Amino acid sequence: MFQNLRQGSTLYIIDKTGDAPVFKTGQVVSVGNPAPVYNNQFTMGMQPKFEITVRAKVDGKEGDFAHLPAAMDVHDYGAMFVSDSREAVLNEIGNICQTAQDELDRADKNKAIVAACREMSKAINPSYAKEAERDEAIDSLSSRLDGIESSMAEVLKLLNKK
User: Fold this and answer.
1) 126-161 and 86-124 are packed helices; what angle lies between their axes, rounded to 10 degrees?
2) pTM
């Protein structure tokens, strides 16, 4: 739990701001006092939740991790996942990986859907079929031209060697 962190404790961080997540560790510099958080639905007998701010050194720079739930060991800011537990970070890494794998698995299905939609559009709309046929011809000519260019480059190399 974040409330049990002390100076020198390790903080585990997954930075999700870029294209791929990045794992980092930080050393706790200081831990603020727990502060109660009340919401509008507070009723008698209900215990308030507490939040703390942890100051940590990550990548040589000190920064604050605010609004960490004192009684929890994980917090997800959206673009950044923070925990004081290795097991929790490993679980989050597994979740991130599984989500990405699920997206990859759907890619083949989505490619098939796009191909089927194009074929249906061709069958229904003759002008779309003509445009698609023209685009395929242009792509074919472009790839042939690329092949001719590479062949010409090889011929020029041979001629320059002589």
Assistant:
1) 110
2) 0.66
Environment class of 5 (CB within 10 Å of its CB; exposed 0-12, middle 13-18, buried 19+): buried
Answer whether 30's CB lies under 8 Å from 39's CB: no
What does the pLDDT look like over 8-18, one tens digit per residue?
999 999 999 99
Residue whose token pair is 């092949």: 147
Answer yes or no: do 76 and 153 share one domain. Answer: no
- The per-residue pLDDT of the chain, averaged, comes to 90
One-letter amino acid at 89 equals V
Residue 90 tokens read as 């490993």
The verdict on 74 and 135 lying in the same domain is no
One domain for residues 93 and 129: no
Count structural domains, the chain. 2
Q: Are residues 34 and 82 in the same domain?
A: yes
Q: E-assigned strands of 59-129?
A: 61-69, 74-76, 80-83
Residues near 28 by beta carbon (within 8 Å), at least 6 away in sequence: 5, 6, 7, 8, 9, 10, 11, 54, 55, 56
Residues 23 and 85 in one domain: yes
Two tokens, residue 106: 């759907």
